[in-house]
């Protein structure tokens, strides 16, 4: 069986293409499900300099009970759509995720209260973080 991602990897990224959304830990994300049905996590990494070019990594992840039920993944696996991009010169350089538009729109579908489309979600991620990076966490359907 294939899963979309796994959280909490034990290795450190060896190079910039090994960037993983999981470097920011799983505890907060899983505990967020105690508060809400769905949690959207948007993370922008600190800048990475290589060969005179500075790049960031921007990731969008959805941890959602609703999504897991719809994906029929309650068989012991935790499925979470995650989309990652490499950003150079404040523009998307490349996607590190296969079919990024599909998964970004899927995430937007579960977060309609804040983001109308995958494009709106991407624009928010591109414009909301400074050069030092950071993480934004949104909770949806509070109180279960």
Order of helices and strands: HEEEHEEHHE
Share in β-strands: 25-35%
SS summary, helix count: 4
Mean of the pLDDT scores? 75
Low-pLDDT residue intervals, each spanning 5 or more residues = 1-24
From the N-terminal CA to the C-terminal CA, the straight-line distance is: 29 Å
Rg, rounded, reads 15 Å
Helical content band: 10-25%
Helix-strand makeup class:
alpha+beta
Molecular shape: globular
Number of strands: 6
User: How many domain modules?
Assistant: 1
* Biggest pleated sheet: 6 strands, antiparallel
Describe what this molecule looks like in 3D:
By secondary structure, the protein is of the alpha+beta class. The chain has one domain. It contains four helices and six strands; from the N terminus they run H-E-E-E-H-E-E-H-H-E. It has helices at 27-32, 65-70, 100-110, 118-128, and strands at residues 36-44, 48-50, 53-64, 82-88, 91-95, 134-142. Strands 1, 2, 3, 4, 5 and 6 form a six-stranded antiparallel β-sheet that branches. A hairpin with a 2-residue loop joins strand 4 and strand 5. The protein starts with 26 loop residues before the first helix and ends with a strand. Mean pLDDT is 75; it is low at 1-24.
List the helices and strands and how they pair.
Blueprint: H1 27-32, E1 36-44, E2 48-50, E3 53-64, H2 65-70, E4 82-88, E5 91-95, H3 100-110, H4 118-128, E6 134-142
Antiparallel strand pairs: 1-3, 1-6, 2-3, 3-4, 4-5
Give the gist of this structure.
By secondary structure, the protein is an alpha+beta fold.
């Amino acid at each position: 069986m294939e899963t979309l991602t796994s959280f909490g990897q034990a290795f450190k990224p060896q190079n910039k293409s090994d960037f993983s959304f999981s470097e920011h830990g799983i505890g907060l994300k899983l505990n967020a499900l105690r508060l809400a049905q769905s949690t959207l996590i948007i993370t922008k990494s600190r800048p990475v300099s290589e060969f005179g070019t500075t790049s960031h990594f921007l990731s969008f992840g959805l941890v959602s009970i609703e999504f897991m039920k719809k994906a029929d993944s309650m068989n012991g696996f935790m499925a979470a759509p995650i989309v990652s991009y490499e950003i150079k010169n404040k523009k998307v350089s490349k996607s590190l995720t296969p079919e990024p538009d599909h998964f970004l729109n899927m995430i937007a579908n579960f977060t309609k209260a804040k983001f109308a489309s995958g494009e709106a979600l991407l624009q928010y991620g591109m414009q909301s973080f400074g050069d030092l990076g950071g993480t934004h966490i949104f909770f949806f359907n509070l109180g279960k």
